[in-house]
Amino acid sequence: GIGRFSESRPLPDRVSALLSSSQWQKLGSTKASDVSAKLDLLADTCKAPPMMVLPAATLVELGRLPQREGEHSEYIVDAREALKDDGVIVFFSHRWLRAEAGFPDDDNNTKARALIVWSSWYKTRHPTRNVYFWIDYACVNQADPGPGIASLPAYVAASTDLLCFETDDYNERAWCSVERVIAYAFMFSGKVPWVIRGSYPPSAGSRTLTKESRVLGDPNVGKLTHEQDRVHIQTLMDIAISSKIWSMGDGRLLKFGTTTVEAWILV
Questions:
Q1: For 12, 89, 168, 252, which has the most beta carbons within 10 A of its beta carbon?
Q2: Taking the model in full, what pTM does it have?
Q3: Considering just the CA atoms, what is the radius of gyration of the chain in Å?
Q4: How far apart are CA 162 and CA 78, in angstroms?
Q5: What was the pLDDT predicted at 244?
């Protein structure tokens, strides 16, 4: 009912209600019309901040990850507008390299450069598609990050692709595992995520794809910066496990420690 999305309820509860709703679960992730409908539900029904994305072309121009410091940013666009531009919405899952300094990249802009190389490679394979990234630092208002971070599970579930930047501690972190699990449960391509290794050489030249299995671990046993997040994570995992999206499709089963995804790694 509409009461589940009353603005009197905390935003994390509204996001959980949205993901478990029949309205959401009847929508796929491969048709632009379905993705757009999800984004409408997120903004209009759930009253969450609209999903904003960073064009890969803008990242190429800047050569760095831009920070969103307020309600508006000249660098990002509404994901619904990106879809009209033959956009592919790529959720970027990563650990901040300089969290103590409030910055996700290192002094050499390694992540930004790696994303530029990856998006250029993707464009050569899919020339009619335009890559748009959801990156927390660039797409969530850093002056008031709470609403955007609370909406993160829905942003994952509304994306068309998942790209993981795997550092040594990536698989230990609870929220990184949440993003991978939500993608598996709600995103068609969630069972074949893209991966960039933290040691990825961001230089020009030819690239090759390699495939490796990744076991989906239980986010509930992952490390958290804020321990109070664990209750919310449990709710999200219950929703992911009970998701009916694939019951009429490829019948994927979510069982922590057993279920694997086939990661495509660009080297």
A1: 89
A2: 0.94
A3: 17
A4: 18
A5: 74
Residue-level pLDDT at 253 = 83
Instruction: Give the pLDDT score at 1.
Output: 56
Kindly state the percentage of the chain with pLDDT values over 70. Answer: 94
pLDDT of 248:
47
pLDDT at 205: 61
Give the count of beta carbons closer than 10 Å to the beta carbon of residue 97: 17
Side chain identity at residue 233, one-letter code: I
In this structure, are residues 132 and 88 in contact, taking their beta carbons and an 8 Å threshold? yes
What are the backbone dihedrals phi and psi of residue 96, each rounded to the nearest 5 degrees, phi first? -70, 130
Structure tokens at 7: 């603005």
Distances (CA, A) of 83 to 31, 173, 207, 212: 10, 31, 27, 30
Largest CA distance in the chain: 54
* Residue ranges, the chain, pLDDT below 70: 1-2, 200-206, 246-251
Reported for 32-41, long-range contacts at CB under 8 A and 24+ positions apart, including other chains, are 32/83, 35/79, 35/83, 35/89, 35/158, 35/160, 36/80, 36/83, 38/154, 38/157, 38/158, 39/78, 39/79, 39/80, 39/83, 39/158, 40/80
Q: Are strands 209-215 and 52-55 parallel, antiparallel or unpaired?
A: unpaired
